[in-house]
């Protein structure tokens, strides 16, 4: 899906391309959530990590479950003096499923917000993933009425929003669509490989 963002201080101006896909994985929702929210494992699937380690530099709990929180992650933590990007992430899990939403933010914008500035004027395009059980969460290998085995798993949905052009009047290109499609396909494949599961 494409849309034009104009005169909204909470989003960068231009053409925004949104893409999402869903895949069933033979893995528990909890294991999927723990993997996706772990900043130490982020380089295994997220291009924003630049292939290096990430470090959680702020953690705000949202309830008693440690997984329900807002975090500020530093990309390429070993060279943080060269990086001007942080990742703001919110994670939560309950009986219905899990959610990991994140967005790259620049350091000056975060300094403004952390010093009491209005966060409504920080332009962001969040991306993320949702995992949810596809059964009651228990593996039932005796199968259903048709004799086929039923195994619990998770339905993983991955969604990206990308600013493909800062000029609202420009037409979107096939190359832009291919780039987003490749990015989302690559992320899903890397998640499957890291968790050693097939859809």
Automatic annotation (TrEMBL):
Boundaries of every HD-Zip IV C-terminal domain copy: 1-197
Record-linked InterPro entries: HD-Zip_IV (IPR042160), HD-Zip_IV_C (IPR057993)
Domain of life, source organism: Eukaryota
Annotated protein name in UniProt: HD-Zip IV C-terminal domain-containing protein
């Amino acid at each position: 899906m494409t849309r034009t963002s104009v005169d909204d201080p909470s989003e960068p101006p231009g053409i925004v391309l949104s893409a999402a896909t869903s895949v069933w994985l033979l893995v528990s929702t909890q294991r999927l959530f723990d993997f996706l929210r772990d900043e130490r494992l982020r380089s295994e699937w997220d291009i924003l990590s630049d292939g290096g380690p990430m470090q959680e530099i702020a953690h705000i709990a949202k309830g008693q479950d440690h997984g329900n929180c807002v975090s500020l992650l530093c990309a390429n933590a070993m060279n943080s003096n060269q990086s001007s990007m942080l990742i703001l992430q919110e994670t939560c899990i309950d009986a219905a499923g899990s959610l990991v939403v994140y967005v790259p933010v620049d350091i000056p914008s975060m300094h403004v917000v952390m010093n009491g500035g209005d966060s409504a004027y920080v332009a962001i395009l969040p991306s993320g993933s949702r995992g949810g059980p596809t059964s009651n969460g228990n593996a039932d290998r005796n199968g259903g009425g048709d004799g086929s085995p039923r195994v619990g798993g998770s339905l993983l949905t991955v969604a990206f929003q990308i600013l493909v052009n800062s000029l609202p009047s420009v037409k979107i290109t096939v190359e832009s669509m291919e780039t987003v499609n490749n990015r989302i396909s690559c992320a899903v494949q890397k998640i499957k490989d890291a968790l050693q599961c097939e859809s």
